[in-house]
Specification:
- The chain is mainly α.
- It folds into two domains: 34-187, Tetracycline Repressor, domain 2; 189-318.
- It is 74% helix and 1% strand.
- A two-stranded antiparallel ribbon has the order 1-2.
- Helix 2 (43-59) packs antiparallel against helix 3, helix 5 (113-134) packs antiparallel against helix 6 and helix 6 (137-158) runs antiparallel to helix 7 (165-174).
- The longest helix is centred in the last third of the chain and has 30 residues, at 288-317.
- The N and C termini lie far apart (69 Å).
């Protein structure tokens, strides 16, 4: 087996035996290890979770002191990172077969799988206990449900068994604004559920757009994403359906008091633009429009929540 000065590389990273093991104490390795641990926490996903969690906290009625709010946000972020670490531990076998994930720390042989698992478990406990002790019980329960749902329902149960994995599993990614809301109010309301619904319905077309131009990766790894199991055209049809469903859901806050009619109108225009992207994907072949839709979908969700936050700020100022 080949060796370098840094580690002994595993031949079978999915087995959990013979993973990368330190054979030297080169000081320069410290920074790379820190980066690898950061990658385990899925920082891109965490950034979206933090943003929507903060949005829920800000949009919620009532007051929260800055320290409690900060603790709530930190716990939400740590919980998201914990879920990501456990996900990478469990998915190390399929990550080693996919081009976009093969360089992650575990399949690349730079980290032992158990390190990722224990990191995830410890961070999960810290985040939930911290939320319970310093914020409130409802937000702690919701955070625990979010972590458990992502790990057990999505990662372990659904991801490898059904093309509806993203649809059902998307609930975990949609809960952070509800957690932020509960951190302020201690409960769940219609408006917090609307924030949940926006992300929940947004998730399938967002990920299916990615799956359309990464279907070879998923097929090779045996992950039953919609394009692999149901075909490209059915996936495009489902994307258009979900994009259309988003229109009434995203403008609903303007009729429940969460946002003004002006904000609702702007969000409605953004949703029509999103539907146009889905329609172009449906009517065309190739990967160009799925790529465009995937990129726009991230901006679209960001702009929805920015609009809600800006509208909230304007109303508070006036």
């Amino acid at each position: 087996m080949a060796q370098d000065t840094r580690s002994t590389l595993t031949e079978h990273p999915s087995t959990g035996i013979g993973e990368a093991e330190d054979t030297s104490a080169i000081p320069g390795e410290v920074n790379s290890r820190v980066v690898d641990y950061a990658v385990l926490l899925k920082p891109r996903v965490m950034s979206l979770v933090l943003f929507t969690g903060i949005a829920g906290l800000v949009l919620a009625p009532g007051q929260i002191d800055w320290l409690t709010g900060l603790i709530a946000v930190v716990c939400i972020g740590v919980g998201a990172g914990a879920s990501g670490a456990i996900n990478m531990w469990y998915d190390r076998d399929i990550d080693s077969q996919m081009e976009r994930t093969i360089n992650r720390p575990i399949p690349a042989g730079r980290m032992q799988p158990l390190h990722a698992l224990w990191l995830g478990i410890i961070l999960s406990v810290i985040s939930v206990v911290g939320m319970a002790l310093y914020v409130n019980d409802m937000s702690a329960v919701l955070l625990a449900i979010t972590i458990a749902y992502y790990v057990f329902i999505y990662t372990i149960w659904l991801k490898r068994r059904t093309p509806q994995n993203i649809v059902i599993g998307g609930a975990s990614g949609a809960l952070p604004p509800v957690i932020g809301w509960a951190a302020v109010t201690g409960d769940i309301s219609l408006n917090s559920l609307l924030l949940f619904a926006i992300i929940f319905i947004w998730t399938p077309p967002h990920f299916w757009a990615l799956a359309l131009y990464r279907s070879g990766d998923y097929e090779k790894a045996g992950v039953p994403m919609m394009p692999v199991v149901s075909g490209v055209q059915e996936t495009k049809k489902q994307m258009l359906i979900y994009a259309t469903l988003l229109l009434p859901i995203t403008v609903a806050p303007a009729f429940t008091g969460l946002a003004s009619l002006y904000a609702g109108g702007l969000i409605g225009l953004l949703s029509l633009w999103f539907i146009l992207h889905a329609y172009k994907v449906y009517r065309t072949e190739g990967y160009e429009f799925p790529r465009r839709m995937f990129r726009f979908s991230i901006l679209y969700l960001f702009l929805i929540f920015v609009t809600l936050l800006a509208d909230h700020g304007i109303k508070a100022f006036i």
